[in-house]
Design brief:
5-stranded antiparallel β-sheet; single chain; alpha+beta; 24 strands; Immunoglobulin-like; Sulfite Oxidase, Chain A, domain 2; 460 residues
Length: 460
């Protein structure tokens, strides 16, 4: 890694880019999501530092602020606003459940216009460019449905355990919630996250490139506890089948080795409250580090068996097409990955000067060890700050101070996890996986900052 102060040759940044066609969305869709992105990051454009001299020391930049004018003044200070002169709303006016400010109405999940569709919209993307920290609010958590979502009556929902067990069991929600519970923070990522980029397609914003990932605090009962209550054969039972109660009867094979670790949860809670209906209420599986399709929603049955089940959802879907034409099956692990969320596609830098580069990193193998950031397309790298907490199989927030000189820049992030795995470039990934895949794209993402401040999605 080169020193942070190394000078770099800027003359051919644009020449090194592969500008991918934006054919994942229609022209109208592209305009819509770009307009939406310009309002992202809680008004990134409005709050950006402007007119700061390039090369100024960071502490001086941060301390500068806006000088007090010699005459006149800011009307927003001089004139007392209505909210400082009158009574506010009653606590009863919110209907008993708090909602975001009306000024944040643009921060919302966006539907997929290009991925697999059913009669109902099947995918929505989380607005990563507008989020802080590592926790995704429940109302902004990404969605993936195979036959739409349901709001199931918990008093009628049943969870069953059968197969290689001494005593098949049926649990009510009340019975499950009486058992000892745990709460843990974990990311959940769809295996198809960043899918469009496999085919050299550049969707315009980070919400569409990486928005099928979220991170929540999940509360539930370890699955191993429930299996032990049923007398499961933990020696000969090598796998379990998880089945959902939705119309598609989503079914997935889960290795027993993951369950024995105690990480896999039968969860009913998310971010301090019950699961939302679109996220599996009243019961779902939580399988840390594994692609989201295995986190079966509306969970109704676990069957213990001695071999993989090869169900429809893992024999013809969620498999990886290799360069030689063969399929890679049961590729469940979500490997180390990161993305810069600000500045990112669709956003605009108002002027040269200081900016905080921020983003998210994660690994299905454990904790993120470090994140390096480049502003010159990978020629030079600086190590970013990892903000606490840094948790296993959870999102990790990183930040890096940057003074933009007004010239073209290509911003990238590269994560390394605690096993030593380093996030690959597209060249490295495609050398092994080819270009015909859909799932498990964990290549380095590039954002081009143009001289006019506009940020575009490119591939380097």
């Amino acid at each position: 890694m080169n020193k942070s102060g190394d000078r770099v040759n800027q003359e051919s940044l644009a020449g090194r880019l592969i500008k991918a066609p934006e054919n994942f969305l229609s022209r109208a869709d592209i305009k819509t999501v770009v307009d939406e992105a310009k309002e992202g990051r809680r008004g990134f454009i409005r709050s950006a530092f402007a007119a700061v001299a390039a090369g100024a020391a960071v502490p001086a930049v941060l301390a500068q602020g806006n000088p007090v004018p010699a005459s006149g003044g800011d009307d927003n200070i001089l004139n007392l606003p209505e909210h400082s002169k009158g009574l506010g709303k009653s606590v009863a006016s919110d209907g008993g459940y708090g909602k975001p400010s009306k000024f944040e109405a643009n921060v919302q999940r966006r539907q997929s216009p290009g991925l697999t569709q059913t009669t109902q919209a099947s995918v929505s993307f989380a607005p990563l460019q507008s989020l802080f920290g590592i926790v995704t609010p429940s109302g902004l958590h990404f969605e993936r449905h195979h036959q739409g979502w349901w709001d199931i009556d918990p008093s009628k929902h049943r969870f069953m355990i059968n197969g290689m067990v001494k005593t098949p069991k049926v649990f009510t929600m009340d019975e499950i919630m009486r058992l000892p519970t745990v709460s843990r923070f974990h990311f959940m990522e769809c295996g198809a996250n960043t899918a469009a980029e496999w085919g050299n397609v550049a969707v315009p914003t980070v919400q569409y490139t990486h928005g099928m990932i979220s991170c929540s605090e999940f509360t539930g009962v370890p699955l191993i506890t429930l299996l032990e209550l049923a007398g499961a054969d933990l020696k000969n039972g090598k796998f379990v089948l998880a089945e959902g109660a939705d119309g598609s009867s989503m079914t997935r094979t889960i290795p027993m080795s993951l369950i024995l670790s105690g990480e896999v949860l039968v969860a009913f809670g998310q971010n301090g409250e019950m699961l939302r209906p679109e996220n599996g209420y009243p019961l779902r599986l939580v399988v840390p580090g594994v692609q989201g399709v295995s986190w079966v929603k509306y969970l109704r049955r676990i069957e213990v068996g001695d071999m993989p089940y090869a169900t429809k959802d893992e024999a013809i879907h969620y498999i990886d097409l290799q360069p030689d034409g063969q399929h890679r099956q049961y590729s469940n692990l979500q490997e180390c990955k990161s993305v810069v969320t600000t500045p990112s596609g669709g956003q605009v830098l108002l002027d040269k000067g200081f900016y905080n580069i921020t983003g998210l990193a994660w690994s299905g193998k454990g904790k993120v060890k470090k994140v390096d950031v480049s502003v010159d397309g990978g020629r030079n790298w600086r190590q970013a700050r990892l903000e606490t907490p840094v948790l296993t199989k959870a999102l990790t927030r990183f930040n890096l101070d940057w003074v933009w000189d007004g010239k073209p820049a290509i911003i990238q992030s590269r994560a390394t996890d605690e096993t030593g795995f380093v996030q690959p470039t597209y060249k490295q990934l495609r050398a092994v996986r080819g270009t015909r895949s859909i799932y498990h794209n964990n290549a380095i993402q590039s954002w081009l900052v143009q001289e006019n401040g506009e940020v575009k999605n490119v591939q380097v």
